[in-house]
Amino acid sequence: MTNQELQQRKLAAFARGQGNVYPVYVTKAKNAEVWDVEGNRYIDLGTGIAVCNTGHSHPQVVKAAQQQLEQFSHSCVMINPYEVAVELAEKLTRLAPGPSVKKAMFVTTGAEAVENCVKIARAATGRRGVIAFTGGFHGRTNMTMGLTGKVAPYKHLFGPFPADIYHAPFPVAAHGVSEEDALKGLQHIFKAAIAPSDVAAIIIEPVQGEGGFYPAPASFMQALRKLCDDTGIVLIADEIQTGFARTGKLFCCEHSDVEPDLITMAKGIAGGLPLAAVVGKAELMDAPLPGGLGGTYGGSPVACAAALAVLEVIAQEDLCQRATHIGALFNQRLTALQKEYPESILEVRQTGAMVAIELVHEGDPEQPDTGLTQRIIKLAPEHGLILLACGYYGNVIRFLPALTIEESVLNEALDQFEVLFCAASSC
């Protein structure tokens, strides 16, 4: 069976809305490398959108999942709980940033984690409003689409969305939005749309994911923390893409020395198995009544076992430090490439191993080069790479390598990307 034959079968059987970036069908993967059904090898610089931080099929993660599967696969944590879920909750509440006593809950997807944060914040405060930021991405359910600050492709055709959701500008210096502008935007919301006393929560990605890998400055995170403290608003850190050592800390908000009230966790949490969590201050987490939170598959015993192994691997292999090293190497090589193509690469952004380049015409931030971005994505398989695009204007290439990637494979990937960039630029 060829890639093209499988693609035709998929197009006939899958809904159009669940598209795929590449007509490349995976048959096996190991650490940072992937092989397709035709035997072609690729270096994966997307890791399933920041899911396989510990690499594809890390032996410890595989072993933990297999051992749990041999014991039992499911009983629903809301009916007959099990020790592996309790142990994971204990570890996550200890590892989450800040001194407050914390509790956890488990669901299956990142969007569910976000929705449950909103539920918890509303139950705890008795308030209705939620503020998110332009360019932010929080999921594809109705509530999380409403929170997401980008229309196409996430919100187009899918309204109406829930009421009492408001968007403030996200600080992006490269596009002329300062921290002061963003804070003024919040004040405008309070003056024109909803009083702070009616706002249950503010949700923010410490580094925007789909929005283009723009980091929230530490001073802005600290200003949000003070604002929320002053007004009784719950501060939610959406760490779905930034968590589990991706940015050089176990959780990205540690860079700003800010303790959120609630944290969403997913993607890299379980090495590829579906699992998500909310971890937050105990008094907030306990606001919903019994039965108000949960779901059939939330806290799957197999996924919890894998997640415990992921935490062990992060500690044993010092993946936070490894993320910093990987990011520094990407930054060095991409900054050198930017000097060769200053009219095309507006900015190199790097927080740990969460790296991006923004592509523009003639060095102008107001002229996004989506054409070059798409050529790079399209040509990537020919150069043995798997890459992802993102960005408010669809003009950002993002790099999310496995934190366990071998040094030789990492350098090979960077070499191939330079060749790829040159080829796409000359098209």
UniProtKB/TrEMBL annotation:
Could you tell me the superkingdom of the organism this chain comes from? Bacteria
Stated EC number for the protein is 2.6.1.19
Q: Which GO terms describe its molecular function?
A: 4-aminobutyrate:2-oxoglutarate transaminase activity; identical protein binding; pyridoxal phosphate binding
Report keywords, A-Z.
Aminotransferase, Pyridoxal phosphate, Transferase
Presence of the UniProt keyword Protein transport in the record: no
Q: Which cofactor does it need?
A: pyridoxal 5'-phosphate
Which Gene Ontology BP annotations are present? gamma-aminobutyric acid metabolic process
Q: Which InterPro entries match?
A: 4NH2But_aminotransferase_bac (IPR004632), Aminotrans_3 (IPR005814), Aminotrans_3_PPA_site (IPR049704), Class-III_PLP-dep_AT (IPR050103), PyrdxlP-dep_Trfase (IPR015424), PyrdxlP-dep_Trfase_major (IPR015421), PyrdxlP-dep_Trfase_small (IPR015422)
* Enzyme category, top tier: transferase
**Key word tRNA processing present:** no
A Pfam family for this UniProt protein?
Answer: Aminotran_3
Protein family (similarity comment): Belongs to the class-III pyridoxal-phosphate-dependent aminotransferase family.
Any idea what this protein is called?
Answer: 4-aminobutyrate--2-oxoglutarate transaminase
Give the source species.
Answer: Pseudidiomarina terrestris
Q: What is the lineage of its organism?
A: Bacteria, Pseudomonadati, Pseudomonadota, Gammaproteobacteria, Alteromonadales
